[in-house]
């Protein structure tokens, strides 16, 4: 069913007079906006919400994204005017609650990560990576060292190389070894006196734990570089190990992954960064500081990288994550990781008869299967499998990432799926592998929407109703 | 029970076996207290928040990019739909048409407000949107200097510097004139040099609706970036009619709560010829296999998950849910609602500045010009000190300018919105009269 664009209900009539309020000649003359009463508006957007799928709708095993359940108590807390109607420029006397919550959250994240100091400012994981790369740059400069290269594995999340490049570093990409892990020889030859940092996620994007991480850390540190932890996969290891114990110097967290805050259809997230004490002076300003239970914002940090965003981070997201950490406690977080890992290995075992899962070791929180055999035998690609899963009410996994697995299906069930739900996902994927290839290739067939033509969208680049109207008028 | 069956299938006896690849040398414990009940969690967090004094408890005259506006209940209701807020980025369009269409409507509304052809579906906030705009100018153009107003918040200027760090582009700052508008004599000659881009704000940091922003286009070939308060555009000539190449701003004022400054809503719009250089996710119109109207994320080859180190930006997670809220907000208000809200804001600010001008030792407004919903007032005492005195009387005063624009350190940026009635303004002015 096609839902009319709300702009199709445009308001008629001339533009209201705005004279006197703006400088002469600077008045607005027309504005195209819809005219809908609230009942009609609600039906429109409720219908749109019903044409969308969230973790509350069904299984969402999207690899690398940690689509946990988003607990509702966190939303209740975030709806308080003690949160919503707080302004970042308020006097400290009014914001003691916000500042106390921020320091408590910073301390919790230090405990979880084994880092010495945390900043909550970055608004998302990639933003935390960027803040971190700025700190790497500032740190080496403070030591009068010219280090302009950042090393990333070929299996890294795309944000890693993008963040390093944005901060002005040259990229050195190293291939993975035969076991899917960092190739120690390749790292050795990539390291030099130009190396500023090595960016690593552990477990890596194949879900494999980098067992030699301590050795990697020594190699990196011996050459004067820093070791960076991409926290996207932290959900695998809480309570068993920590980035600090593994030897990392800088960490970013994804509160919208590991700490259960909603993804909001793409955001907002929150991407705090944690560092060892020698990097603390470089964290963004202002820092929350405490004296006798009274907290203030400290701007006098001469070595700080400055600001990465307008305010003090996504407080409404930080608050939700803090509530989740309190509710779970240390044992609950440890158990969440254990269940996430159990679920991933169970689902892997359940689908292995139909999909090859390259690399033999046990996985952590996710695994990468391949549809290569299906493609060779029947011409069914990972994309087709994904689209057919939609017909069965299961959100597809991440596809075609990481690129070292051909026809990749990257699957992360999280701890919140039950055995029954995992069995359903496995049954759906197995059935698709057995199905008539023409059916799979034509999917989705059952829902209101057929396969969407993405190349037409890219070719025509119609990104607004205004553009559409201009094309219609031609 | 289920756990045991699952462990049996994968051939392990103990849960610990799942972690046998984590070597002893990196093992550690998690030193956090045990968990709490849901009720206990709520109580514990509420105890902390209890120490806050919010803008509904005591009137606040703060703004500067983050505004206390009324958020219609329908907006909160729609963004609370869990099909929206518990979904991920719509990588699979067939299962995400609702989010995709809502985001396309957001992009469309932003394009209408700004009179631009294309918008992305959000960046983190207004400051990072400016940073990304400057980086995009460096992709569009060779020049080595990005010109920006010196009258910017220290936060925004710092973010801009940080976003340009890897680009090799320097920032040049220009001043303001005696009426608070941009100093065209300072800026004019510099517009002919090898510029990467030029940025102006409309309204600017002083709340001035600066007509001189409209003079820039003919003076330079470099990309022109205009920073806006989107709500003010219901009254003002849109940047597209002023020749802007890129428009940025913070859309928190469109249906989102202040939330202690985060999340914000980074608005980013541009001309059609620049769309393939844009940062961030964009939603495009297309069709499905049955020929029906459909939407999907498009031009993803600009993005980090495809282009990696050569992406136009590193951004992945954005603030899509706030973009949905903004779409609902603008749809609900419609043209007349937006105009009337914007008018009310401008009139509120004007009333407050007029009342303050009656105080002997206050210069209000400091700049004789048209303002939107905020303005500078010069105070006879340092604004930082004044705010501490006002706090004792139950008011949160405006933003002291000192940390942002040191030579205006005696000025306070005062903001008024539809949340202030006459009584609140009168009481604030009365309190000022008594303390000054």
SSE topology sketch:
The complex is a heterodimer of chains A (474) and B (436).
Chain A: H1 38-50, H2 72-78, H3 81-84, H4 96-113, E1 117-119, H5 125-142, E2 149-153, H6 159-166, E3 170-174, H7 184-190, E4 195-200, H8 213-222, E5 226-230, H9 243-246, E6 250-252, H10 255-258, E7 273-275, E8 287-291, E9 294-298, H11 315-351, E10 367-370, H12 372-378, H13 382-391, E11 398-399, E12 408-411, H14 419-434, H15 437-442, H16 454-460, H17 465-473
Parallel strand pairs in A: 2-3, 2-4, 4-5, 5-6
Antiparallel strand pairs in A: 1-7, 6-7, 8-9, 10-12, 11-12
Chain B: H1 2-10, H2 38-49, H3 73-79, H4 82-85, H5 97-114, E1 118-119, H6 126-140, E2 145-149, H7 154-164, E3 170-174, H8 184-187, E4 195-202, E5 224-228, E6 246-250, E7 266-270, E8 282-287, E9 293-298, H9 304-307, H10 320-357, E10 374-378, H11 383-392, E11 399-400, E12 411-415, H12 422-435
Parallel strand pairs in B: 2-3, 2-4, 4-5, 5-6
Antiparallel strand pairs in B: 1-7, 6-7, 8-9, 10-12, 11-12
Helix pairs in contact in B: 3-10, 5-10, 6-7
Q: What does this 3D model show about the protein?
A:
The complex is a heterodimer of chains A (about 475) and B (about 425). By secondary structure, chain A is of the alpha/beta class. Helices cover about 40% and strands about 10% of the residues of chain A. Chain A has 17 helices and 12 strands. In chain A, helix 8 links the parallel strand 4 and strand 5. Chain B has a domain of about 260 residues: Aspartate Aminotransferase, domain 2, CATH 3.40.640.10. Chain B has a 7-stranded mixed beta sheet, sandwiched between helices. Chain B has a 3-stranded antiparallel beta sheet with strand order 10-12-11, covered by helices on one side. Chain B has a two-stranded antiparallel ribbon with strand order 8-9. Helices cover about 35% and strands about 15% of the residues of chain B. The longest helix of chain B has about 40 residues. In chain B, helix 3 packs antiparallel against helix 10 and helix 6 packs parallel to helix 7. In chain B, a hairpin with a 5-residue loop joins strand 8 and strand 9. Chain B starts with a helix and ends with a helix. The chains are: A alpha/beta (about 475), B alpha/beta (about 425).
């Amino acid at each position: 069913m096609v839902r009319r664009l709300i702009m199709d209900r445009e308001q008629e009539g001339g533009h209201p007079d705005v004279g006197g309020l703006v400088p002469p000649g600077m008045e607005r003359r027309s504005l195209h906006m819809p005219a809908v009463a609230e009942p009609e508006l609600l039906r429109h957007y409720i219908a749109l919400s019903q044409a969308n799928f969230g973790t509350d709708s069904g299984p969402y095993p999207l690899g690398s994204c940690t689509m946990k359940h988003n607990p509702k108590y966190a939303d209740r807390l975030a709806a308080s005017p003690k949160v919503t109607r707080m302004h970042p420029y308020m006097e400290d006397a009014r914001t003691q609650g916000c500042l106390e919550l921020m320091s408590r959250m910073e301390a919790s994240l230090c405990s979880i990560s084994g880092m010495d100091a945390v900043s909550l400012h970055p608004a998302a994981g990639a933003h935390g990576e960027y803040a971190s790369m700025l700190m790497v740059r500032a740190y080496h400069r403070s030591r009068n060292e010219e280090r302009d290269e950042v090393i990333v594995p070929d299996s890294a999340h795309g944000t890693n190389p993008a963040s390093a490049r944005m901060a002005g570093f040259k990229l050195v990409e190293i291939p993975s070894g035969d076991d899917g892990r960092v190739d120690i020889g390749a790292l050795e030859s990539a390291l030099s006196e130009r190396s500023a940092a090595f960016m690593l996620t552990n477990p890596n994007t194949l879900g494999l734990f980098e067992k030699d991480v301590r050795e990697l850390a020594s190699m990196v540190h011996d050459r004067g570089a820093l070791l960076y932890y991409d926290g996207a996969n932290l959900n695998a290891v809480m309570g068993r190990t920590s980035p600090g114990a593994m030897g990392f110097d800088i960490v970013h967290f994804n509160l919208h992954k590991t700490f259960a805050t909603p993804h909001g259809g793409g955001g907002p997230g929150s991407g705090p960064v944690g560092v060892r004490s020698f990097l603390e002076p470089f964290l963004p300003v202002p820092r929350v500081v405490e004296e006798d239970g009274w907290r203030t914002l400290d701007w006098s940090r001469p070595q700080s990288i400055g600001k990465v965003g307008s305010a003090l981070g996504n407080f409404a997201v930080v608050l939700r994550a803090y509530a989740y950490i309190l509710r779970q406690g240390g044992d609950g977080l440890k158990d969440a990781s254990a269940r996430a890992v159990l679920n991933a290995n169970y689902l892997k075992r359940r689908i292995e008869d139909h999909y090859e899962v390259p690399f033999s070791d046990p996985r952590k929180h996710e695994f990468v299967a391949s549809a290569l055999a299906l493609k060779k035998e029947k011409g069914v690609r990972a994309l087709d499998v994904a689209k057919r899963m939609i017909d069965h009410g299961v959100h597809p996994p991440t596809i075609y990432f990481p690129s070292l697995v051909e026809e990749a299906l990257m699957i992360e069930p999280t701890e919140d799926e039950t055995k029954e739900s995992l069995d359903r996902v496995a049954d759906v994927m197995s059935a698709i592998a057995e199905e008539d290839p023409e059916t799979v290739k034509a999917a989705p067939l059952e829902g209101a929407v057929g396969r969407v033509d993405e190349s037409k969208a890219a070719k025509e680049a119609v990104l607004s109703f205004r553009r559409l109207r201009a094309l219609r008028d031609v | 029970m289920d756990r045991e069956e699952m462990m049996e299938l994968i051939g392990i006896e103990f849960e610990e076996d799942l972690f046998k690849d984590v070597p002893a040398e990196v093992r550690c414990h998690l030193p956090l207290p045990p968990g709490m009940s849901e009720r206990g969690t709520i109580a514990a967090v509420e105890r902390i928040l209890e120490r806050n004094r919010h803008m509904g408890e005591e009137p606040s005259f703060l703004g500067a990019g983050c505004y206390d506006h009324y958020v219609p209940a329908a907006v909160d209701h729609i963004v609370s739909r869990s099909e929206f807020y518990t979904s991920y980025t719509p990588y699979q369009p067939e299962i995400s048409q609702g989010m995709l269409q809502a985001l396309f409507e957001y992009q469309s509304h932003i394009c209408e407000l700004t009179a631009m052809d294309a918008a992305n579906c959000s960046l983190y906030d207004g400051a990072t949107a400016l940073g990304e705009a400057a980086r995009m100018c460096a992709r569009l153009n060779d020049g080595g200097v990005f010109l920006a107003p010196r009258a910017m918040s220290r936060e925004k200027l710092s973010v801009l510097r940080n976003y340009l760090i890897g680009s090799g582009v320097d920032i040049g700052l220009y001043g303001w004139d005696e009426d608070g508008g941009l100093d065209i004599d300072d800026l004019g000659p510099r517009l002919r040099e090898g510029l990467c881009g030029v940025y102006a704000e409309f309204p600017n940091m002083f709340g001035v609706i600066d007509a001189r922003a409209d003079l820039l286009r003919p003076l330079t070939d470099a990309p022109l970036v205009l920073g806006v308060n989107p709500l003010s555009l219901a009254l003002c000539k849109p940047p597209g009619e002023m020749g802007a190449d890129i428009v940025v701003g913070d859309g928190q004022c469109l249906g989102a709560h202040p939330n202690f400054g985060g999340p914000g809503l980074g608005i980013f719009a541009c001309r059609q010829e620049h769309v393939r250089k844009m940062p961030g996710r964009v939603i495009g119109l297309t069709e499905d296999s049955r020929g029906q109207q459909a939407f999907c994320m498009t031009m993803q080859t600009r993005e980090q998950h495809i282009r990696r180190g050569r992406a136009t930006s590193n951004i992945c997670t954005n603030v899509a849910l706030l973009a949905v809220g903004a779409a609902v907000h603008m749809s609900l208000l419609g043209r007349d609602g937006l105009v009337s809200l914007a008018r009310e804001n401008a009139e509120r600010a004007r009333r407050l500045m007029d009342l303050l001008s009656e105080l002997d030792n206050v210069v209000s407004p400091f700049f004789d010009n048209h303002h939107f919903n905020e303005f500078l007032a010069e105070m006879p005492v340092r604004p930082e000190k004044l705010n501490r005195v006002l706090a004792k009387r139950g008011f949160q005063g405006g933003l002291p300018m000192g940390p942002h624009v040191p030579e205006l350190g005696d000025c306070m940026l005062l903001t008024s919105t539809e949340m202030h009635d006459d009584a609140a303004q009168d009481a604030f002015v009365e309190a000022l009269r008594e303390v000054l």
